[in-house]
Design a protein that fits this description.
CATH topology of the largest domain: Immunoglobulin-like
CATH superfamily of the largest domain: Superoxide dismutase, copper/zinc binding domain
Largest sheet: 5 strands, antiparallel
Number of strands: 9
Helix content: 25-40%
Distance between the termini: 19 Å
Strand content: 25-35%
CATH architecture of the largest domain: Sandwich
Strand order of the largest sheet: 6-3-2-1-9
Number of helices: 3
Amino acid sequence: MLSSPNGWARALGVIGLAAVLCTFSVGVLPAYASSGLITCTATLAGTNEVPPNTSPGTGSITFTFDQSTSTSTWSETFSGLTAPATAAHIHAPAPPGVSTGVVVPFTGVPAATSGSFSGTTTTLNTLTPAQFATALLTGMAYANIHTSTLPAGEIRGQLSCSQAVGVPEFPLGLGFLAIAALLLPILMAFRKSAFLNR
């Protein structure tokens, strides 16, 4: 019963705990990043092209995109092409088996049948940063390498992407508020007990 000191302590304890949980939820939820770095990988092969081809070439790529700065970064290797590479890109939006336009043109592509290259750019063609991020995270983007033998694309790989999630933070001010919410029921219970014992 609330007329007893223990009853008041229990009731106020529940209120204090509820206050702490509310404080924690308010403090944590906004701390998660809404546009963290997107990291993608893909394995490239001729059988992934549209239409598929019998090229013995293979490749692999690691690609990242920072939506906040519209910055694309890549590192790609390839080997066994039927002719020297002439260009390489990221295309979007398109699912496997469908071709679409270039969004990120790569620089530094070696004119060779085997090699590796890396680079960075803020260039985005046809899509906004938000649209490109959505395409990456929904499996609607691919990387490919072009050659003179297969100018539409000799090897291709659909990008598999994930987005970094921020670590939740608990602001210092809300931490003090949580402590106060816990201590308040205790102090009030002691005060109530002292009043009833007079």
